[in-house]
Amino acid sequence: MTLTARSLRSTVPPEGTSGFLLAIVILGVMLALAVLVGWQLSVLTAGAFPKAPPYMILVYVLGLLAVMTPFTARLFPWISNWYYLLPALVFLGAFTILPVVLTVNYAFTNYSAQNSGMPDSGVRAEATLNEGRNVVTLKEIPEEGGLTSYLKCQATTCAGDTIVLYDEEASVPFKAQIASVAGNAVTLAQPVPASLPVTQVTRVNRYQYIGLQNFQEIFGKATEALWPVFLWTVIFAFSTVVLNALAGLTLGILLYNKRLKGRTIYRTLLILPWAVPSIISIQMWKALFDQQYGIVNKTMGLLGIIAIPWLNDPLWAKIAVILVNLWLGFPYMMTATISALATINDDLYEAASIDGASRWQQITSITLPLLRSSFTPILLSTFAFNFNNFGIIYLLTQGKPPVEGQVSTAGATDILLSWGYNTAFASSGGQNFALASAIALIIFFLTLAISMVNFKAAGVFEEARK
C-alpha cells in the first residue's frame, strides 16, 4: 500500500507492516522531541533556580506529551488508534534502548567512581563571592599544585572548564563556567544568580572519551582475566546443559511410564527444587557446603572421608557451583521431557513392541529422535541463560575463591557477567564502570557468536527457511 499525504490525514489507519512502522516512527519522534525539549527546559530551570528539584525534567516531559498528543492527533487522525503503544515505547526506551546506548558510550570513556562527571564532595573548599558575583576566591586550596591542578583543568587558564558552587547547606550544586584563574581567585564567565549565597566550591571529576583503551587493557591482560573467565564460563554453561539434560531426560522418561506406581508423588517431590525460590535454595546449599560446619562434610566424616573445601578451593568451588545448578535446573528439563513425551503417539510404541523392540530400543529409536525438535530450542536457550547466570555465582560463591595470577576482580568461579559486575561495583573504592561496559560489549559479541554457532549446528536456520 502506497502512503500518500491524503491517506496520512485520514481517520482510517494505514494497513499492513508499513502502517505499523509508520505509527512507531511518529510516536517515537513525538517522545524524542518531548524528552529533548524537556531536558533543555530542565537545564535552563537549574541555571535560573539552583534549588529546583531534579525531577522537573519528568514534569516537563509529561506536560509536553499532554500538549503534543492532541496536536499529533490533529495532524494524523488515525494515530489515535496506536496511542496504546506509547507506554510500551516509553518502557522500551527507558529500560532497554537507553541502557544499551549508555553501555556502548561508557565503553569508550574513562567513566568510574573517580571520573563520574559529578562534583567531588571530598575536596570542597571554603570560598567567598565578590560584589559583582563573578569572582570566587578560595580561602585555601585543599591540594598542592594550585588552582589548575585542583580543578583538573584541561588548559592552564582553565577557560571553559567548570567549577561547582554551594550554599551553606550544600544541598544543590550549581555548575558555573570558568573564564580564567589567578592565584586563589576564579573568574566566572557569567555572574552567579542572586538566589545562591556561595560559601563552598569544588571541582567536577569529569570523564572523557579515551577510544579503545579499555579494550586494550582487557586484551592486554587477557591471560590474567579474560581467557580464564571465558573458558570457565563456557565449561559452566556447557556442563550445566549436558548434566541437566541427562538428568531431566532420564527422570522424565522414567516418570512418564504409566505402569510406575506413585509417579505423581515422585513428580511432586522432584519438582520441589524448581518450586522453591532459588535464593533460598542457594543459601541452603551454601550452608550445606560449609567446610567446617556443613552437613555434607559432617556426613562424609562419618564415612571416614576428609573434609572437602567446597567453597574455598578453586576446583571444588567450581564443582559445587555445577552441582547446585544441577539441583536447580533438572526439574525444568524433567517437566519439559514429560510434556514433550505426551505429544508422541502411543501407537508407535505398540507397533515397536509387536515388532519385538526392547524398551531401550524404543527409547533410542523413537523417544530420543522425536524429542530432538522439542529439546533443541530448550537446550540452546538454557546454554544462553547459564552463560550469563549471574545469580548462582553471586549468591553461592561471590566469584571466590581468588586465584593466584589473576586480577583481583576475577575469582575462580567468576563468569564473564559476574566479572563485569565486580569490576563495576565491587572494586573497593575504584569502581570502573567504563571497563565494565567494555566487558559487557565483549560478552555481547561472544554470546552472539556462540549462539550463532549453536543455531548453525542445530540446524535452526535450515528449519526457518522451510
Automatic annotation (TrEMBL):
This is Maltose/maltodextrin transport system permease protein. It comes from Deinococcus cavernae. InterPro entries: MalF_N, MetI-like, MetI-like_sf. Part of the ABC transporter complex MalEFGK involved in maltose/maltodextrin import. Probably responsible for the translocation of the substrate across the membrane. GO terms for biological process: maltodextrin transmembrane transport. Its main location: membrane. The chain crosses the membrane at residues 20-43, 55-76, 83-108, 229-256, 268-289, 319-344, 378-396, 433-455. The keyword Amino-acid biosynthesis does not apply. It holds the Pfam family BPD_transp_1. CDD domains: TM_PBP2 (cd06261). Keywords: Cell membrane, Membrane, Sugar transport, Transmembrane, Transmembrane helix, Transport. Belongs to the binding-protein-dependent transport system permease family. MalFG subfamily.
